[in-house]
């Protein structure tokens, strides 16, 4: 029987409503949900094509074990028993910290997944958690904790009411933003202009967004912090400080002292932004009745992403735009979540990482030190890794080195839809459900909604073959490893009895189910799950109230917002040195990342339509002046080199990038992924072969990897003899095999 079922996309933060057409228990089509309360008939091509991910013949359907270099199917019972035995043995020999875990970005789009992953690792006594957050956003958590008293307080631009929006290092038309839910991005940004407002897109590349709206301003990579220093200086110089906000803040004078030397003339030298352009930008911002400065990965992945985000927040607050309709608002529900997290972590002292002494961010260490944690002998050396919904061998810096490190592990278990590049090295691959196979609420985007709503959806179809939800897998792994979730024998017993499904003697009504968590979410929003379920396309909640945050909900002493957190102030002292570094003459070009319409990190290249013909590779975009100087032509293969490694990739020549800058989409380089039958035939190269890792290469404050503004040498890939000589060299051999 054919039927239509409401669901929502869990690929990115937009959380677009989808309608799944289902016939005979199979999803035949996904289409945008016209009735969804926020996305209102919008979904991008990735969400609509998710059917091909879900239905792919490459999906892992049963647990796999690597035997003599080949993967063979085994039962869940055997897989769990064998993994459990090896975990127990490794813990006995090398201690609790020898077990680590990496959790990838898709986990953020399921409520039970990250929670149970973390609880499983903690049940083993290990704190060695690594996440993709240190590649894209941990600077934001660090700054929010320091300024507002909770990492969860991420002010949301009130996009539908503002008059001026300044976007740094983001490409909303393609990425749909992060830390901000924005379906229909182009329409909603254009609406600002229709209201007579102004949108600035500040980026070293003239993006697809800039082609459609706003005023684009080129900025040299990794120089946003200097633009923000001048912006903050001008805030004081023009007398635009809101006196009410200033009274509710600490550190106003200290901030004024730090930014004072950074005149627009001084920063123009390093940003490449003319003083008049910056002036005009500030004029619009300060004159607007409701404005926001916003940044994303292009800023976060720089060498000073935390300082940049701190200044950006300080400007938004002191100018009176924080806690204001048309400026930025802080959802009420975040206060309840922030208080809950605070009370759970009360009395716990964060323990720095073994390598480099990095403080954990939301319980996780920088993935940029993962290879060192595996390769450096001594107490706490990582010997076993669980990787859930991640592909660190493509996503983490210095990918080649990490590949070598992963090969030294005594045990590697991946938990995923596919056997990806990391899964290729695994001892066991455990299969999971797709998002169409499980019920959910869009909680992970809940704190980032300009237009708040709740939605609950049931699974659209039954789980495929032997796939399981992650919460189930982590409960069973804990049981097999003789550990207990939250150290509680009773809780572990209850969860394990619930996970037993049909074999459980526990009455259905007494079993754990993720639905219990969804009930709690609804209650936290002062409603019930029943009421939410009565609205399958989502139910709008009360708008975020203005003037309820500053001086009222800030989780610091006296509820004061801290504009000069000591750890950030201390790092700001390094900015003069960084300025010198950024203004010196360079031999190489500065590489930035790039999002693509048909790509999402490393996991959309196994969709045939997305990698057909010229789309079967990523391209290095080079400015025409640089192309002439380097003697590279469109379509020609260029060799791109850093201290970390070398890749070969075809060239695009375009003035959409600044002279001196090259851009390269990440997530490519699948030639060795024999579990991805379509992606392995693509010829793209992994940008992270070029990026640096190690304790000194990650940002000290947040552990963020340095993935933008990386200096690279670009050369034409020369003659046939050289090509021949390099045919057998890694990582080029994989590239050539695919050609
Ligand atoms: S914008 Fe994001 S959430 Fe919406 S359909 Fe595309 S990938 Fe899915």
Labels describing this entry:
26 strands, globular, single chain, 739 residues, alpha/beta, six-stranded mixed barrel, seven-stranded mixed β-sheet, binds iron/sulfur cluster, 15% strand
Please describe the topology of this protein.
Elements: E1 2-8, E2 17-23, E3 26-32, H1 45-48, H2 50-54, E4 64-67, E5 70-73, H3 76-94, E6 99-103, H4 112-123, E7 129-131, H5 133-136, H6 138-148, E8 156-157, E9 164-168, H7 172-175, H8 185-194, E10 198-202, E11 215-217, H9 224-237, H10 243-247, E12 249-250, H11 252-259, H12 264-271, H13 275-287, E13 291-295, H14 297-300, H15 305-318, E14 328-329, H16 332-345, H17 370-375, E15 384-388, H18 392-395, H19 399-406, E16 411-416, H20 421-424, E17 428-431, E18 453-454, H21 470-480, H22 489-499, H23 514-524, H24 529-533, E19 539-540, E20 561-562, H25 566-572, H26 575-583, E21 589-592, E22 620-622, H27 624-630, E23 637-641, E24 646-653, E25 661-663, E26 710-716, H28 720-726, H29 732-737
Bound molecules: iron/sulfur cluster (SF4).
